[in-house]
Amino acid sequence: MEKQQIGNNFFIPMPVVLVGTQVKGKANFMTVGWCARANANPPMILCGIGNHHYTPKGIMETKTFSVNIPSSGLLEKTDYCGLVSGDTADKSQVFDVFYGSLKTAPMIKECPVSLECRLVQTVPLPTNSLYIGEIAGAYADGRVIKDNKPDFSAIDPLFLTMPDNRYWTLGKYAGDAWSAGKKLVQQPQTST
Amino acid sequence: MEKQQIGNNFFIPMPVVLVGTQVKGKANFMTVGWCARANANPPMILCGIGNHHYTPKGIMETKTFSVNIPSSGLLEKTDYCGLVSGDTADKSQVFDVFYGSLKTAPMIKECPVSLECRLVQTVPLPTNSLYIGEIAGAYADGRVIKDNKPDFSAIDPLFLTMPDNRYWTLGKYAGDAWSAGKKLVQQPQTST
Question: What ipTM was estimated for this complex?
């Protein structure tokens, strides 16, 4: 297959999360697609957020934030939190809010999983910044825990692709990690 | 729904990528789930990689790396690249390799999309480091480009969940981003 060059501004498929902050004493939530784990031990997670956004104000004010995983049933409210800025709209009443040990990282009751994070490091980049937080608490609905593990079919997370700007559900189980490739170990590898 | 506290070491659903590097003149590929966009303009992408891994040697040696998106049909080879280290196994022959303008970031012909990246910044964390690269070139198979945009159904990417250690396909179209929540704009928001 011949390769063609496409625009450099390519976006890999993104897990959709809602980042919760407290700004001037009020809860605010922002939809974020640039989110990944950052460190294994202690557990850290990062969010990449545009420098002009309202959410960074809350992160810097309290040095805490939350990461909430919305299920597909929350699609409209999730999209709403990406459409309007906390600078002009009060998003504190969109969800039922609860707090954990950090007290200043509002979490979303309707989301099956929520993480509260303590800011560890900020990495400023030209148009965006990375906010790296240590996961200080993790909360889940009992119904999404199976055999003591998060059940991702029950969590029913959303993904975002760009620039087609589409949300997607999690698809089918496709194989076991650290297992499916075992048959290739020890075999001479040749390109096909 | 009552919340229960779960272990802090929670992993959000992760897009699966293969990170390509050249180590001592030889192509090497590593499966990575900690990958997200980092900056909008110029376009940057980041990968979080354990500090003991072989791939960072190649990134630091050439100051370049590639990010390749495997389709679900490449699941076995993708998993293989996460099972064995370049330190003990030669992974240079697992895929057909091509190079772009950077010359030192090996990309995978079998992957529908590949990005070549110039290292911009390294963020060392306790057990892992973030490698932030500017996307210097993006290459795709013509069959996955539709109306000049990447068609993610055709790309057929994989996701990884942990600690159940499962690969998943992309699911169904669930709605339009920056659109599905418009009906909530201007309405008073109340928690439900």
Answer: 0.95
